[in-house]
Amino acid sequence: MYTLITVLIFVACVLLILIVLVQNSKGGGLASNFQSTNQIMGVRKTNDFLEKATWVLATALLVLSIAGSAFIPHGAEQANESAIKNQVEQAVDPNAVPSFPTATPDAAPVQADSAQ
């Protein structure tokens, strides 16, 4: 499901980019580029269509992004988390390591030879 939503987000982004690029900030837009569209739809209807398409795609992008965050797969993260948790739990506590003596042990008494 997450992959499907990601693909839909990508398609919505590409379409939104194309529609925004077709629009003209001064109101000409698509209708000013093609003279035959003035006879079919008119300048006003073309601008209305492009504006509505922009709002619909922007809303769809917002909704898909929120839905995509709900379907993020968490299985791999939980497996990694448990592996890290196991390593932490099985780690040797530095306070539990035996400490080595710092003083030298007493030397054994030297026995003198009685064969003098």
From TrEMBL:
Residues 95-116 are annotated as: Disordered. The chain crosses the membrane at residues 55-72. It comes from the Bacteria. GO terms for biological process: intracellular protein transmembrane transport; protein secretion; protein transport by the Sec complex. GO terms for cellular component: plasma membrane. Keywords: Cell membrane, Membrane, Protein transport, Translocation, Transmembrane, Transmembrane helix, Transport. InterPro entries: SecG (IPR004692). It is found in: Cell membrane. GO terms for molecular function: protein-transporting ATPase activity. It is a multi-pass membrane protein. PANTHER family: PROTEIN-EXPORT MEMBRANE PROTEIN SECG (PTHR34182). Involved in protein export. Participates in an early event of protein translocation. Belongs to the SecG family. This is Protein-export membrane protein SecG. It comes from Mangrovibacterium marinum. The lineage of its organism: Bacteria, Pseudomonadati, Bacteroidota, Bacteroidia, Marinilabiliales.
